[in-house]
Write a structure and sequence with these properties.
Elements lengths: L2 E4 L2 E8 L3 E6 L13 H4 L3 E6 L18 H14 L5 E6 L1 H12 L4 E7 L8 H16 L2 H9 L6 H10 L4 H9 L16 E6 L2 E3 L2 E2 H11 L3 E6 L6 H4 L1 H12 L10 E5 L1
Parallel strand pairs: 3-4, 3-5, 5-6, 6-7, 7-10
Antiparallel strand pairs: 1-2, 2-4, 8-9, 10-11
Helix pairs in contact: 2-3, 4-7
Amino acid sequence: MPKVNANGITIHYEIKGQGTPILFLHGSGASWKMWEPQFEAFTSRYQMLMPDYRGHGDTTKEFPNNKYDHHIIVEDIKCFLDVLGISKIHVVGVSQGGQLATLLAIKYPTYVDKLVVSNSYSEMPTIAANWVLSISNFIFSLLPYRTIINLMMKFYKDDAYTQRILRESFSIDKKMLLAMKKAPFPTHTDQLHRITSPTLVMGGEGKVMTGVDEGKGSRTIFNHIQHAQLALFKNAFDPLSTMRRDTFNEMILEFLEDKPLKQYKDVDIFSK
């Protein structure tokens, strides 16, 4: 369980494979274990660098003034790379990890070689999404943590594999979950034009979870980044890294190796 001290905290991370490094940033509430579906596909040719970011896993839980802050996590990640002596790296982020990866590419563009952003948003997708978030925060505050997790798993009732990966990777308690959900959303659509890295945006098509239009969120990111490609998956949603792991893995490998993206069943691909 390697750990480093960076930005005043202790960051736990795992490394698997050999070769060109890729930074993998997990989703909210998860840990490095979320990336199990990627191990076999990536470790034969790349080195997977998988930190637990602040508030998650075995990394420091405290935030300044006890306020969860995405921008502080981005600083943690930058300092983490500095300690490891890495000045440029491919970055793959899913869900909240996608937001962190995008914010990293905006603030520290020289650090990001190629960028993959999956199931992510650069702004709250709708006014209704704010209402859904507020209502869920209230409901979650009243429920036992195990009940909250079981409710979340109902989105994946027909996908036992995704349920297993998510349950095994959950790494936060109820207090951190509520702090994270109540934190200000890191809106950054107006800054996406600053990203210079070749970028692959991936997402589910349409209103796939709690009425939120994931496809719209992915299109917004794609439309505002100059060197971007977009892949929209039908009948799948966050996280694509489990729900469509084989296509997810193959598509990212093609992208990293500068190969044209193939046509996949139930995936619409757009390029600029």
